[in-house]
Amino acid sequence: MSLSMSDTPDQRSETRMSTGTRSARLRALFEAPELFFFMEAHDGLSARIADTAGFPALWASGLSISTALGVRDSSEASWSQILDVVARVVDASHVPVMVDGDTGHGDFNSARRFTRQAERIGASAVCLEDKVFPKMNSFVGDGHELAPVGEFCGKLRACLDARDDDDFRVVARTEALIAGGSVAEALERAHAYADAGAHAVFIHSRRKTAEQIAEFAAAWRERLPLVIAPTTYADTPTAEFRAMGIKGVIWANQNMRAAFAAMSRVSRDILAAEGVVRVEDDLAPLSEVFDLLGYDELAEDERKYADVELGLR
Ligand code: SPV
Ligand code: MG
Known about the structure:
Blueprint: H1 9-16, H2 22-31, E1 36-41, H3 44-53, E2 57-60, H4 62-69, H5 79-91, E3 97-100, H6 108-120, E4 125-129, H7 149-162, E5 169-174, H8 183-196, E6 200-203, H9 211-220, E7 226-228, H10 238-244, E8 248-251, H11 254-273, H12 286-292, H13 295-305
Parallel strand pairs: 1-2, 1-8, 2-3, 3-4, 4-5, 5-6, 6-7, 7-8
Helix pairs in contact: 3-5, 6-7, 7-8, 8-9
The structure holds sulfopyruvate (SPV) and magnesium ion.
EC number: 5.4.2.9
Family: Belongs to the isocitrate lyase/PEP mutase superfamily. PEP mutase family.
Protein name: phosphoenolpyruvate mutase
């Protein structure tokens, strides 16, 4: 499929979702009965591509943004560095953006500063996880220490109170299963986060199957919208997630990994061949790049704005 600005995000946004702010649209997605997808974005280009492809919402992934910055997903990037990228993601897209807030980058005060800034740059949700700072990516190692429940509930409250816009969502993510805890422990934490006022719960698992997710969802009984990121259990059909009552499915890192694979291959091949002929067919034509970024539109605007005859004497 070729991506094109003639099928602009503006036009598609109108058909995919009605009017209102992005945060109101995300809230509506969470409150509607249907399952929906968040596509990962880690810079302006990946955001524009995912939006143009038709996804209704974006996930500004900590892992993918860190990787694109050339650092590890272990709180190495500062929160302002992450939000600088999120600003590019928001700017390049028209759909709601949920920001991976990690632990909130410290205590309740760092978390609420992060949340307030995320809202001000135009994000529509922040997702906070119940680990201690500095965190490590959920797929790496076994050192996933959980924050005390009361402390994390306070952090959620601080972030909820820091919002200006009621529609901005605060999503609570429990890493209980990642830390080796039981489904019962994950449920206990999730219920506490719901009591604290979270708008949705992200239950994360790194098992190869969705069994724990199914068990969690059955006991949860749709108390709040449930969000998952099926990275390790990606072969579970989406129909099964629908049957479990899952609301939001995050494709958390696929754009970054696609770029990683393609760039690795192209760099190796060009070096080996001492030329680009062999890889040329695998590359996006520049015309497609210019199309996506709306170069035609700029030419039109130049005619409209560059030299205006105001009729002044
Ligand atoms: C991310 O995309 O940064 C996430 C999801 O937090 S995961 O990498 O699965 O922890
Ligand atoms: Mg993350």
